[in-house]
Structure formats: structure tokens, C-alpha cells
Amino acid sequence: MRATAIAQPNIALVKYWGKADILRNLPAVGSLSITLDALTTTMTVDLQGAGRADELILNGQINHKIMPRVSACLDRLLGKNRGPAAIRSECNFPIAAGLASSAAAFAALVVATNAAADLSLDKLSLARAAGAASGSAARSLYGGFVELSVTPEDIAVESVVEENAWPLDVIVAVNAHGPKAMSSGEAMQLSAQTSPFYDRWVKSQDVDLAAARTAVLERDFSKLAEVSEHSCLKMHSVMWGSRPPVVYWNAATIACMESVRQMQCDGLDVFFTVDAGPQVKVICLPEIADEVHSIVRGTDGVLSTMRTALGQGARVVGDG
Ligand code: PMV
To answer: N or C: which end of the chain has fewer CB within 10 A?
Structure first.
């Protein structure tokens, strides 16, 4: 009745922004991501260890904020008549700051719960359960380059290319501490209701997805760089066009983009992406990662950096 799972965040190269069905948390668009290796969430789910209600201890402290979504996810997997669960989670990177901590958390939660309750659910069913809690979490069940597609009924997720088949490195520039001002869920809804660019965003997604998928299958770095930066800037344009505007960037975000532009002008194979937060993820070939890392680290306003390769999908690591 107890199991531990480890999961890593994933970073979308072709972004998901907007929901087709808010109640089921069904994304409005497909997406393509990379699963990271060095950023980890390790979660133990104990289905008999709690008192009268579910409890979550996150990095040693009781957490109430994410609890309703955690409980809803457990209800979905175990049924509403289940007993309370005790959950302990350790996360080695900033939480709720645009680094996909919720993706890693819900991926770990469904994998650990599946093992603790001996549910024997397959990976896609677990991905769907994670995705119902956090759209991007479905992708963290898989390793390497992962594509999520949306059908009228549900989502489908698959690994397009495994993590070792095309090694890339990611330098994460942490440009602010503390949680973001608006959750991605709220911001997506605001964009869908008020941004004049939202409909065009949804309509143009399939072209970007096809281009990115081909770039990954052909290991075409410059094509992947072009479509990824385009998808990122297009998503942020949708946010900026919302009323009130949703702006997650700060000065260091723009400084990092400038650094990447300069490296590209100098002939380096590198590109950036930014999610719902000011942090910038810089993707490059492993052979130039030392050089890229030192340039990103030295960029104005960057508080700290993390470097990671691509990683595996969420998995069970123990029964305690
Ligand atoms: O999974 P959510 O609801 O936190 O949304 C994630 C949205 C982005 O990170 C901005 C884009 C993406 O595809 O991950």
C-alpha cells in the first residue's frame, strides 16, 4: 500500500496553451516536449499512512495549496470511497515558477499510486490521469522527445525519439525566485476569452507540430530551433494580447534571449524556450554545452543555472 516514484519535468518545444474542455482538462492543442534528467521529484504515496484526510508534505513542509488537485487525482484513480493518503514529495528545483514542477509532481503521483494500490494501469491510462490534473504532466510519463495529440475523446501520448537516440543538453536560467503571479490554468482561460490571437494560435498548431516532429525524426537541429522559438514567442504573444495582459518575463528573460541570439550569430547550435515564468531554457548540442552554460550563467540578471541532459519517463523506484 506504499510506493515511491521519481519523475522529471518536461519542457514543451511546441507549446500547449488553452483547453478544449475545462472540466476534463483536455488541451486545445497538441504539443511536443523534451523530458529532463537532472530535475527530479521523488514522491512516496502511502495509502494507509494518513489520519482523517489526505496529507502532503512537500520538501519537509505541509502543503495545502496543491492538495485539492492531488486529492482529485487520487479520486480519479482509486474512486471516491478510498481512504486518506499520506504523500511525501521531495523536489530539487523551484516549485510553481515556470519549471514544470506540477508536471513532475502529477506524473510521480499517478505512477506511485498505481504501484501502491496495485492497479496495473498501462502507461497511457496513467498519462491521461496525470493530464487531467495538469495538462503538461501527461508528457512526463514518457522519456526523450514526447508528442501529445488531442482527439475529441481524450489525449494520446508517445515518445517520438528516446532520450539516448538524440542527446541534447538544456541549461535552465533561473531568473526569479518565488511562485508566479498567475497560474497557467487561469492565464490560459484569460487568453482564450480575451486574446485576439488565440484562435489563430489554435489553428496554426498542427503545422508547427508536424515541422517539429520531422525535425526530431531527422535530427535537424536548426529546423527544431526555428519552430521551437516560433512556438514559444507565438504563445507569449497570445498571452501579451490578453486583457489584462499576462507577462511572465522579466529583464533577465530578455537578456537570456539576447545571449542566445548572439550565440546563434556566432554559429553555435542553440535555441531558447520560455514557459509560464521568467526562467529561460536554453537547448544545445552536448559538445558545446560547457560554453553555452558559461555564457548563460554570465548573462545579466540570471540568479542561478541548472544543466541537464534529456531523461526518462516517470517510474517506480521503491516500495517505501
Ligand atoms: O500543464 P500546465 O497546466 O501547467 O500548463 C503548461 C503550459 C506551458 O508550460 C506554458 C506550456 C507547455 O506545453 O508545457
So the answer is: C
Q: How much is the pLDDT for 318? A: 74
Domain boundaries, the chain: 2-163, 169-309
SS3 sequence of the chain: CEEEEEECCEEEEECCCCEEECCCCEECCCEEEEEECCCCEEEEEECCCCCCCCEEEECCEECCCCHHHHHHHHHHHHCCCCCCCEEEEEECCCCCCCCCHHHHHHHHHHHHHHHHCCCCCCHHHHHHHHHHHCHHHHHHHCCCEEEEEECCCCEEEEEEECCCCCCCEEEEEECCCCCCCCCHHHHHHHHHHHCCCHHHHHHCHHHHHHHHHHHHHCCCHHHHHHHHHHHHHHHHHHHHCCCCCCCCCCHHHHHHHHHHHHHHHCCCCEEEEECCCCCEEEEECHHHHHHHHHHHHCCCCCCEEEEEEECCCCEEEECC
pTM: 0.96
Confidence band, pLDDT 50/70/90 cuts, at residue 320: low
Q: How confident is the model at residue 42 (pLDDT cuts 50, 70, 90)?
A: very high
Would you say the CB of residue 71 lies under 6 angstroms from ligand 1? no
CA 48 to centroid of ligand 1, rounded, Å? 32
CATH class belonging to 169-309: alpha beta
Pocket test for ligand 1, best of 10, 13, 14, 15 (most atoms within 8 A of CB): 15
